[in-house]
Specification:
The protein is of the alpha/beta class. The strands form five sheets. It has a five-stranded mixed β-barrel. The chain has a four-stranded mixed beta sheet with strand order 5-4-6-9. Among the domains are: about 70 residues, no CATH class; about 120 residues, Transcription Regulator spoIIAA; about 50 residues. It is about 35% helix and about 25% strand. The protein is globular, with a radius of gyration of 21 Å. Strand 1, helix 1 and strand 2 form a beta-alpha-beta unit. The protein binds iron/sulfur cluster.
Length: about 375
């Protein structure tokens, strides 16, 4: 976050997916309230929805706006007309990669998750509005467009009176003019349909071959207690379908350590299962007890020390996987996009399969070819051109 100490207005969009996220948001809000007391402070997002009381205590003068009031923020602040739900973003200042929120809300019932309570019902950006937003961002020089949603795979935009699912949206967006590529953010494996894979595989490289498919646990019993809508074995089968259509795709997952009742043997089962999937990397989380969720009152809450120890073992596996992913890329030519400000001298970039590559020189705006020349642990080095 830039210049908050001198800003007239600070709008903080909070996350509440874990207790850690709550703490980070509260820490930042307290700092702003203490060090820039003259700024108008507005706090929105999931923590504003989940625990407005904690925010009011941290910054009594802040204006708190829940997720349901976000679309009216511009009016509230006297900055413009009311936005349509999920209004249009025209520019991501100093970024090559632009995020486009295409979907919000979840109707899932995962027993650990607070998201359905704070994000409300499923809603999607109409396809024409999405096309317009992506076209504008591409015309503004963004080389990578990341399509995001709480349940991205449940996207259902309406186009000309007919429903358009995520596969239809990808096919439409992939045909737009310009030097850009599309990337999908996190997707539930149950929503990784053959149609979607075909749309990605048939896009001529426009859709990046990288997927984030949250697994959470590789233990069947834990998955059942989590109320995840799949069995581990189904996850593996869909992964095989993905690899048949998009060989070489980068595939990442979320894994949780210390879900209530997770025994040592369930953890070992999960670890062995995840290892067998040959993924490109893991995002490891410790279970976080969220008020109002079914898991919060489950018996067998795992002691913190055991959860930490399991997370450490998962992170070791993550490092191993990312190192193998980087090593396997050595000698290949990748299409890279700068991850920071393309006008700066920043040499950090991202390949199409989500491999981070440190380049010999700043690639500048756009998509560039780079030869991967070496790897050092999870990090790859490349030469532009
Ligand atoms: S699918 Fe499950 S984990 Fe994902 S947001 Fe919905 S309830 Fe939460």
């Amino acid at each position: 976050m830039e210049d908050w100490q001198s800003a007239d207005l600070c709008v903080i969009n909070t996350c509440s997916v874990t207790a850690e996220a709550d703490k980070d948001a509260l820490r930042l809000i307290r700092r702003i309230a203490a060090r820039n007391a003259r700024a108008r402070l507005v706090v929105t997002g999931c923590l504003a929805e989940h625990d407005a009381g904690a925010l009011a205590k941290a910054a009594p003068k802040a204006t708190i706006v829940g997720n349901r009031g976000k679309d009216g923020l511009a009016v509230l602040l006297g900055l413009g007309p009311a936005g349509a739900p999920g209004g249009r973003v025209t520019r991501w200042h100093g970024r090559s990669r632009a995020l486009v929120k295409v979907q919000d809300g979840c109707d899932g019932a995962c027993s650990y998750c607070v998201v359905p309570q704070v994000r409300g019902v499923l809603s999607s950006k109409p396809l024409e509005a999405l096309v317009e937003e992506v076209s504008g961002l591409v015309a503004g020089g963004h080389a990578e467009i990341v399509l995001c949603g709480v349940r991205l795979g449940r996207y259902e935009g309406e186009a000309g009176g007919a429903a358009a699912d995520l596969a239809a949206a990808l096919e439409r967006l992939a045909r737009l003019d310009g030097d850009f590529r599309l990337r999908l953010s996190s997707l539930e494996v149950a929503e990784l349909s053959d149609r979607l894979l075909d749309a990605a595989a048939g896009s001529g490289g426009r859709v990046c071959p990288s997927f984030h498919l949250p697994l959470q646990s590789g233990s069947e019993a834990v998955l059942r207690r989590m109320k995840r809508p799949y069995a581990a074995e189904r996850f593996a089968r869909r992964l095989e379908a993905l690899r048949r259509r998009l060989p070489g795709a980068g595939v990442f997952t979320d894994i949780m350590a210390g879900f209530p009742g997770e025994t040592e043997s369930e953890f070992e089962e999960s670890l062995a299962f995840v290892r067998g999937l040959r993924l490109s990397g893991l995002h490891v989380f410790r279970y976080s007890r969220r008020r109002g969720t079914a898991a919060a009152s489950m018996p067998g809450q795992v002691p913190a020390a055991a959860a930490v120890e399991r997370a450490v073992r998962l992170r070791e596996l993550d490092r191993e996987l990312r190192s193998a992913f980087a090593a396997a890329a050595v000698g290949s030519v990748r299409r890279v996009v700068a991850t920071g400000d393309p006008r700066s001298q920043d040499c950090e970039a991202l390949a199409e399969d989500f491999l981070p590559v440190v380049l010999d020189r700043s690639p500048g705006p756009g998509i560039h070819r780079a030869r991967v020349v070496s790897s050092d642990g999870p990090s790859a080095r490349g030469v532009v051109g």
